[in-house]
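S.,

Sequence below, as promised.
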Amino acid sequence: MLIAQISDMHILAEGWLAFGSVDTNGALEHAITQLNAMTPRPDAVLITGDMVNDGYEDQYQALVQRLTRLDIPYFPILGNHDDRELARSAFGQLFFMPEDGPIHYTTEIGGVSLIALDSNVPGKPYGKLGAEQLEWLDAALMERRDRPSLVMLHHPPFMTGIEFMDSCALRDGDKLAEVIAKHEHVERVLCGHLHRPIQRRFAGTIAMTAPGTAHQVSLDLSGDPDNATWISEPPAILLHRLGVDGAMISHQAYLGDYGPSVPFSDDHTRSDA
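The prediction came back faster than expected:
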């Protein structure tokens, strides 16, 4: 069982570049091409929010047009840049999409349960789940306690040290931790938002954020909340593999062409030859 995770695509209307220079639409196209060509091919693709940049209808049109090329079932959730009702309309053909209320849902991917949460607070950069959704999560996990489960939401429920991003993290992460800690079968809490691969222990499991498919947030641990910058580090995805022993292993896979895989050998050449 192999599950891919992409995040923070920030799709724009056709012909637009993010920050005047980042082709987020082209980056998603490259990601889809690489996902389709993987061996083995992932069984599912999780999309952990900020699918579009401004929550506009033409951006969702550009997004869906590209996702039709993906030959793998995909499962989206909202980020703070997304619009709940436009996203619901764009993905209304997906069988698991709720007709109203928060866009949270459950589904099964092989022997793994996926529980998707909606941390979107309209008009705000930070996230919140709320008591009702946390109760729903607790019940959903209780029903699936006989199999490994993945919980996904956009906003990470922990501080990362990147100050300007920590200011817009999940506001009720402590309440989420109380629920997750009750369920030992949660293999991962998967998030987006940070445009960086970050991991930490969380409520008895592992919580992690995914890199972006285009641009990344700069790694700034100075503690200065005014250092809000991005950087053209390589785009990447995460791959979560459920082994035969039932353990989940997570890998980061860079997007792009970095040359062929080359066998190791004892042949060396002097750099000054």
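The chain has a mean pLDDT of 94.

Coffee later?
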